[in-house]
Amino acid sequence: IPINYPCINITYNMKKIFFLILLISLTSTSPAETHKTLIFEDKPLQKPFEHPDWFKLSLLDLNEDLVDATKNGKQGIILYFGQQYCSYCNALLNTNFGKPDIASYTQKYFDVIAINIHGMETIIDFDGNHLTEQEYAVKMKTTFTPSLIFIDKDRKHALKLNGYYPPYQFQAALKFVAEKYYLKERFKKLYKITLRKYFNPV
Known about the structure:
There is one protein chain. With 202 residues, this protein is of the alpha+beta class. 46% of the residues lie in helices and 16% in strands. The protein is built from 8 helices and 6 strands, in the order H-H-H-E-H-H-E-E-E-H-E-E-H-H. The strands form 2 sheets. A 4-stranded mixed sheet has the order 2-1-5-6. The chain has a two-stranded antiparallel ribbon with strand order 3-4. A hairpin with a 5-residue loop joins strand 3 (122-124) and strand 4. Helix 1 (5-27) runs antiparallel to helix 7 and helix 1 (5-27) crosses helix 8 (187-199).
């Protein structure tokens, strides 16, 4: 009904404003704090690391994983592509997911499923294809680690993150999908708009 369209637009625009405010608040971290967060050894680790114990113990049937997540009231699943001894993967798992607010927010809205880009475990993808973890990583173009693919309830790829994002950016990405901004905007576009407005005010 045409008369409802303005209401939908107003509601979305208000949500968009709130999201922009969130991004500004997240990017207002002090330079010292941001620098401290990003300091880590950019070389292969000497010892392997463990995934957070709240990651889903998956049989790697992605359709079943998505059904389980939605039955539990979540927005979808996050496919985490990583590898042992990867320093950036370690930063994601321990620096980002090591923050209680990020960990709790992620668990509230998503199930996280770990995929080893060199692994040989069988994955059943959304089309019913049987692939090794390694083959699936190549198919999804996620051999650069860490990579994350957010899948929503309708099996739509809501967002893909290649590489490590520091906590303030990662929080924005989580909210971008959980609050369904991805249905209207592209994350990088919205994030760039926010940074431009914040750092270059008129």
